[in-house]
Each structure stands twice: as structure tokens, then as C-alpha cells.
Amino acid sequence: MDHAADAHRTDLMTITRFVLNEQSKYPESRGDFTILLSHIVLGCKFVCSAVNKAGLAKLIGLAGETNIQGEEQKKLDVLSNDVFVKALVSSGRTSVLVSEEDEEATFVEPSKRGKYCVVFDPLDGSSNIDCGVSIGTIFGIYTLDHTNEPTTEDVLKPGNEMVAAGYCMYGSSCMLVLSTGTGVHGFTLDPSLGEFILTHPDIKIPKKGNIYSVNEGNAQNWDGPTTKYVEKCKFPKDGSPAKSLRYVGSMVADVHRTLLYGGIFLYPADKKSPNGKLRVLYEVFPMSFLMEQAGGQAFTGQKRALDLVPEKIHERSPIFLGSYDDVEEIKALYAEA
Ligand code: FDP
Fold it and tell me: End of a domain among 180, 200, 220?
């Protein structure tokens, strides 16, 4: 009998236990972050269950509304947003919420306010909902650094000021990947326990990868450096093997694979979308935070992604993120352009 393996199986590190352990390193901590995170986890479990039942419960399909990005909202998007907003407000630990689905920020009423601001995309990759392909929730957390009336300025801050970021992927398994600024840790939902269990401690992205991930259908509109980079991936001239192309079209799934296997994910600017497609606050920043914490890099085509200072809550930015060496290559191409 393998006692070591057995001990491992019976000593379950749940996400709550993990965060409480982290918290005990800060004697002044009053548990606010643990409470906030438990509400985010509840939202993720709810969405996971809704996604799994979507076909049966007839949750797929349009909800008959268009969100502020001009995209048709799906029923699951609407449901996920409602769940997260309510869970975050009822945590009593938030003051400002920014959701991809809501045009305006939500300001929590004074009696329920707390010291955190949360930016999130409740259900990212919505074009993949109806065919059952992996989708996810992305979130980033800032602290409120004053006791005055909160404003959108409290979230219009560079990503390097986030105190935590993560995503939950609703895929073949449900996985929550989190960083509180001390590395990146992955937790898999055990459906029989209803608990996220630490399965991927201290994730480090390979320094170089052999996969590139991009919507190549936009190639005719790319700028010079992106075109050259993708050409290099396919036809390397330095004797290295060509990279494989993988593109799910759900940022969470594409970034998750990139984090575990290495390589690069790119959603560049193009002639039609000069600022790219992905949103700074709740897509670019959380994923860039995780990439850097895992030893990778995230670049906008001009600068380190986490140094951007957004002016609007739904601002977009081009993004290149992944393995350190792969992002170095695209940085070099932009530097010489
Ligand atoms: P979606 O439009 O399906 O919600 O931010 C939205 C997003 O998906 C990302 O998850 C994904 O990486 C990207 O857009 C896909 O865009 P393209 O369809 O233009 O490739």
C-alpha cells in the first residue's frame, strides 16, 4: 500500500484552507480576503453547475438583450452576472464592482461596503456556450485605499496594483486558478465534495513553448510585427521546429493551456480593431498578473501590460502573453519596428 499517496489523498488542501494558511502569515489580517474569496468561489460553483446543466435547463440561447460591447447576451451570461454581483455585494467586503456585462460600475450601498473592488467577466468566451466548449470566469481584485465615497477611479488603476487575480475554467473539469501575488495555484472542483482542492501548486509556465494561439482569420489586418512573429512561428529560420497552432476562442481556455504547456497567446491590434478586442480591466490585467506570477510575461505591443493605466472601465488593449522567451521575441519585433 502506498501510504504517502494515501496520506495525500486524505489530507485535502481546500481553497479555503489554503487561503487561511496564507492569511496566517499576516497577523494583522482580519479574514476579509478569505470571506471575499469564498463568495467568488460560490459564484464559480454556481456557474459551473449552471454550465453543466445548460442544455438540459434550456439556458443556452439568447436572452434577448445586447450588452454594452454590442454583443448579444446569452441567458447564461445574464445568470452568471446576477450570481456574481449578488455574491460579491452580499460578502460585505466590496465597494466597487465592474462587470463585463454591465455598462456602469456597481457601487455597493454603504451598509454593505468593504475594502475590496472586484473587476470581472462572469462568463468569458460566450460564443462557445452553445456548443459546450470550455468557457470561464475571470476576476481581478484591488483594495480601496481610502474611506471616502468610492468612484470609478478606484478601479482605473494599473494592473500591477491588483492584490489578486484568477479565473475559473468550466471545462472537462472545473478548475480555479488563483494568485494573491505569491505564485499561481490551481484548484480542481471535486464535484462529490463540492470543494476546490489544490491539485496544481505553484504553477510555473515553461520558459519557452511550442504552441502559438491566435485568431489567424484576422491576419490580413495585422500590423508588421504581429505578421512577422506568426510567420516565424510557422516558418522558423533558425533551425527550430515550427510551433503548433491551438485556438479555442475562449480566453480562459487558451490562457490556461498556455500557462500549463507554455507558448504564447496573442490578441493583437488590427486595422479593424486598433485597440485589439480584449478588455483591460477584467481580461488583460488578471491574465497578465497570473502570467507574470507564473514566470511568464505579458506585453501590449508597447509596454508591460500590467503598467497600463486604464481611462475607462471597458477599455480594450492588444495583448501578447505567455512563456518568457516567446514574449521576448515579439517584444524584439516591436522594438525594431
Ligand atoms: P467571446 O467573444 O466569445 O466572449 O472576450 C471575449 C472573447 O470571447 C475571448 O474569450 C476570446 O479569447 C476572444 O473573445 C475570441 O475572439 P475572436 O472570436 O475574435 O477570436
Answer: 200
